[in-house]
Amino acid sequence: MTAAIEIKGLTKSFRVYQKPEGLRAAVAGLFRRRYRHVEAVRGIDLTVAPGEFVAFLGPNGAGKTTTLKLLSGVLTPTAGEARVLGHIPWRRENAYRRRFALVMGQKNQLWWDLPAAESFRLHQHLYSLPRDEFERTRDELAEMLSVAHLMQQPVRELSLGERMKMELIAALLHSPEVLFLDEPTIGLDVVAQHNIRAFLRDYQQRRGVTIVLTSHYMNDVAALCRRVVMIGQGRIVYDGALDGIVERFGGHKVVTLHVSESWSAGLLRGLGELLSFEPPRARLRVGRADVPVVLQRILAAGQVLDLSVEDPPLEEIVAAWFSAERSAAAALSGGGERGEGEA
Amino acid sequence: MSPAAAWTIIRISIAERLVYRGDFALSTLMRFLPIVTQVFLWAAVFSALDAAGRPAEVAGFSYHEMIAYYLLTMVARAFSSMPGLASGIARDIRTGAVNKYLIQPVDMLQYLLLHRIAHKLVYYSIAIGPFALVFLLCRGFFPGWPDAEVLFAFAASLIMAFLLGFFLESTLGMIGFWFLEVNSLLFVYMLFAFFFSGHMFPIDMLPAGIAEIVRLLPLQYLAYFPAAVFLGKVSGPQLWQSLAVEGVWIVFLAVSGRIAFARGVRRYGGYGG
Q1: Looking at residue A246, what is its pLDDT?
Q2: Strand, helix or coil at A232?
Q3: Which of A134, A144, A278, B230 is the most exposed place for a label (fewest CB within 10 A)?
């Protein structure tokens, strides 16, 4: 089976005008402009099989959205190759554009003042969909997302969650084989997030489409994707199962114990890094390798009513990794920069 | 693009335009107010000439012709003006709204052209009443109906004025790919267009040297040319020759817009999000 997405050495750098502060600097800027080269994506290699549900994870500015924009043909790369369903995205052939969709959580692609039904009708004709097939798909999607009753209401009068559902329907009407989702749950409340997630999981299983998703919410990723690609400073730093992140980046376990009154904070501190102590509950951070030894010492130290050993929450691991990444970038004087130039 | 898709774009654009029909109707009617000031202004100019014993003619235009000219340029501008087209394209580039034309199987220029046709159709359906009234009240300023050939050329010049205006402004909007802020540039263009399209006064009134340059520019087709055709100021072989030159300008600008779009997209940053 050939890959749905194949990327080799994909690179994109931007030239960003450095707007100086202050009037004098602004006038000088009219004559000699200072630019900074920002390498948003630096040589990414990636293969995604048909039917995979992959998450791009990374801090703001890591290059996730840029990669999605390259794959959907919005941007032309500086170097490297990419093929999606055998097409080179930035050629923007209609044959390719009929086979994929991009949904951006922060962008509105529907007609603001008109009911969503009108935008859907336009999509029917732009994508040359047969009428009955279009209506079947539309009604099925509206049913799955329970927004059938809202289709005749102007988009501007929908809630953010309802609008996002309409955006999804618009993107899926032509039954794309590849779907790019950029922050599809951003700004939504917990219930709406859950609904969108449930829909995406259900839809992906039913249709077997290939989906690449970026999100800041670990819950999105944990609920939907088996495979996670972590991107930092324009490079892939991890590609594998979600669980693997814990092993790779989480060097610690969290030991939670319920102790009797005889225990003191001082005693607990001797066993590991004390995260919290609200008697009778205490949480300790312990290096992975030290866990067996620490457990023996705990049991020897006094009466323990309950005890559990867990991996730290994924969110914490990723957050810790992100901030480490960021300070490393700061140490290299300003992240993705590569020298300054004048033009 | 399929005819069904084209029709859907027009239909939806009309529906969108009708959402704010009250505001739209009011702004349409307000556009007719300057007519009154213009009529009084030229009346004053010509009566002053008359009082001074000078021939009652300015750059070959009599008082009646001048008023007729002004009313006809209003018709021409109803076809050639493209409010918000260039600045809208530049805004879409700046905010990243242009992405949808890159992702979906739709050509941006075709789409915008159909959108604009829809807006014009809605505008004419509302403005035709006031236009008819003004022309009825001012019918004394016109020499009478021109012959069929001139009427045909006049109609052609109006449709071509629409196309020229569209391709000129859409190409200007593409500058947004290179300079994110284009409003002051567009303001300069509008100022030039106001004088050199003949919207303010017939270009025959410009000093000889400038008038010659202006006759080489496409701006005259936006206002001056249709009015001059109707009033018989351009006739015979010169009339058809001018229409042919206008056709060349339209093709040139349409191709320029395409090239600018293709190049602009290559350097486009896909802003926002």
Answers
A1: 76
A2: strand
A3: A278
